[in-house]
Design brief:
The complex is a heterodimer of chains A (288) and B (332). By secondary structure, chain A is mainly alpha-helical. Helix content of chain A is 83%, strand content 0%. In chain B, a hairpin with a 1-residue loop joins strand 10 and strand 11. In chain B, helix 3 packs parallel to helix 6 and helix 5 packs across helix 6.
Chain lengths: 288, 332
């Protein structure tokens, strides 16, 4: 009934799934693919790529402290990195508020400082290079059931927030002057946005790691940006690219025996390059 | 005849009969064109908020308007940036349906005045009231800044942008309904942009971009519309279109505050003129303010008065590139 090629394709897909850790990895990768690329839409449109990258790196000391206390347990790592992320955001806000330094300078200072602190803490442990590698580049094969549940809960919360406040977030990002004229609580929405970015980064760390995090946020969203003129389409396409990259990347990592985080990001980048070359809008090229 | 699209049949009984007379006497000669209706939108507005004396925002706030007070009232408003007093002791009031032109040189504080009224700036001292109420959570003010800090490549269409004006009317969490879409679409019709509703905003020309924001202000259902230098950079045709749209708004009872350099046009098309240079030099009708004494006080010595058959034209001398542009205009 089935042609041999379909059978072999099916085995190609199902073969890795006989391992429990691969099933868990795939679920985690898909969830991360969805929420990163969804929130990433805002990151791209608001020009927060550097902020996202910095936020991811600055979680390291939080992760390190939680790791020293609780090992690889899910919740301590979650709270540790979330607290580090919030401290970073607050620190950047405080330095910028005085008006003495520009925001990107403030971000650079805080993020490098926090990152160094994280490395220093981890290096106090004996076999630190292995642990550091996991934090930096992810350890998707070590995803536990608790990790998946946490990322599901966070993911649903983020999707719900975006659905509920879609209009308002759009206005706050697109036209802050209108937002103020309409008396929207701008600070609340800006905080909500940063908080969502931080949450998504925290639950995605295990999949791609600190160093490659920013790619999951911006590459699928940027790819979608080149293909559509409507925000909701951009979000849907971004999610599509995100899910495709994370699952294809995971399979690539299984069969080609390469690091999974890197494989996922590479697939993201390949899709981007393809779309960039063949994009009907060719925005980036036409504009110059 | 885009403006007549909805015809007279749209005028429902709920429409306030007096509104039409509140238009300015000079309401541009094109009488038939001025018979435009905001129909659906105005019906909704009049049925909903204005006549009950409430500004109703379904976002949850109910602010009682005291209709015996002026629509807009400023009392001793002072704005200080650092050491500099940008606005000093500004006091004036505007009645419903008026058209006020705010005229002054660059740096006179025109934009600051609008931003303060719009609420994007907080005055250092003084009070602003809408129908006797502080505008803390009023959303009946629409503001078109001179420069929109907008990413024109943003993935939104013309209709999306117009719909943004309605988000507080729609309320949190809820999605735009059919009525909101009708109002948004009708607002686009009023600025003659309905055919471009589905276009991405980056594909529009300068004049069209401005009209999108005008449509958004209309969709916002505002009572006061402030436009900061809307004529700057528009060609003559677009300027004429803009005046026609403004006539339309006046007919529908929307109060206009417009800043401009063009004293001549201000005199012709506005019920009152405010000469502003950090403080109010003079406020009154065109004849009242067209006095060299006030003009010198407003523009410093840097202006030239050109008398022509059209009347008095003031050419400001504060910036060379602008000067040329304005000289060109006075010839036109």
């Amino acid at each position: 009934m089935h042609s041999p090629s379909i059978v072999s394709l099916l085995t190609f897909i199902t073969a890795p799934l006989k391992y429990g850790f691969m099933v868990r990895s795939l679920i985690a990768a898909v969830i991360v693919g969805i929420i990163c690329s969804l929130v990433g839409t805002y990151v791209v449109l608001k020009g927060l790529a550097f902020m996202g990258d910095a936020l991811a790196h600055s979680l390291l000391p939080g992760l390190a402290v939680a790791y020293l206390i609780g090992g690889t347990a899910t919740m301590p790592l979650f709270w540790g990195s979330l607290i580090a992320g919030l401290l970073t955001a607050a620190g950047i806000g405080m330095i910028t508020r005085g008006g003495q330094l520009k925001e990107d300078t403030a971000i650079g200072i805080i993020f490098a400082g926090m990152f160094a602190l994280g490395i220093a803490i981890i290096s106090s442990v004996r076999n630190y290079s292995v642990d550091l590698t996991h934090f930096l580049f992810g350890n998707i094969l070590g995803v536990t059931r608790a990790d998946i549940i946490l990322s599901l809960v966070i993911g649903l919360a983020v999707v719900l927030l975006i659905l509920l406040f879609y209009k308002e977030l759009l206005v706050v990002i697109f036209d802050p002057i209108l937002a103020r004229t309409l008396r929207l609580p701008i600070m609340v929405f800006q905080f909500m946005l940063l908080f969502m970015i931080a949450l998504v980064i925290v639950v995605s760390l295990q999949v791609v790691g600190v160093a490659l995090m920013v790619a999951m946020l911006i590459t699928p969203a940027a790819t979608a940006y080149m293909l559509t003129n409507r925000l909701h389409w951009m979000m849907l396409l971004s999610v599509l690219f995100g899910v495709a990259s994370s699952s294809v990347g995971l399979y690539a990592s299984y069969y080609l025996n390469i690091a999974s985080g890197a494989a996922i990001v590479l697939v993201c980048t390949l899709i981007f390059i393809f779309v960039f070359i063949f994009s009907p809008k060719r925005k980036l090229l036409i504009k110059v | 005849m885009p403006y007549q699209r909805n015809g007279q049949s749209e005028h429902s009984g709920k429409r306030e009969p007096g509104l039409k007379q509140s238009g300015p006497e000079h309401a541009r000669s094109g009488g038939s064109r001025s018979e435009l209706s905001l129909s659906k939108e105005s019906r909704l507005r009049h049925a909903g908020s204005k006549h009950s004396g409430f500004a109703v925002s379904r976002g949850g706030h109910f602010w009682k308007h005291d209709l015996s007070r002026p629509l807009l009232e400023l009392k001793d408003v002072t704005v200080v940036f650092g050491e500099e007093e940008v606005l000093k002791d500004i006091s004036f009031s505007v009645e419903k349906g008026e058209r006020l032109a705010v005229v002054g040189p660059n740096g006179a504080g025109k934009s600051t005045l609008f931003r303060t009224i719009a609420g994007t700036l907080t005055p250092t001292s003084g009070e602003i009231a809408i129908y006797g109420r502080k505008p803390g959570s009023h959303i009946c003010i629409a503001y078109m800044p001179q420069v929109n800090m907008i990413d024109w490549d943003f993935p939104v269409t013309v209709l999306d942008v117009v719909m943004m004006g309605r988000i507080r009317k729609i309320g949190f969490v809820k999605r735009p309904g059919r009525k909101d879409r009708e109002i948004a679409y009708h607002s686009l019709e009023l600025v003659n942009m309905e055919e471009l509703a589905g276009k991405q905003i980056g594909m529009l020309s300068g004049g069209q971009r401005q009209r999108v924001f005008l449509a958004r202000a209309i969709a916002q259902d505002a009572e006061i519309l402030m436009m900061d230098e809307p004529f700057t950079g528009l060609d003559v045709t677009s300027q004429r279109d803009l005046y026609r749209i403004m006539d339309n708004l006046t007919i529908n009872g929307i109060t206009l505050l417009v800043s401009t350099h063009d004293l001549n046009a201000a005199k012709e098309y506005f019920t009152r003129i405010m000469l502003l240079n950090r403080r109010i030099v003079k406020m009154g009708t065109g004849e009242e303010v067209m006095n060299p004494e006030y003009l010198i006080e407003t523009f410093g010595g840097h202006f030239t008065v050109v008398e022509s058959e059209k009347g008095t034209t003031v050419i400001e001398d504060s910036c060379c590139s602008h000067k040329e542009e304005r000289v060109g205009k006075s010839h036109a």
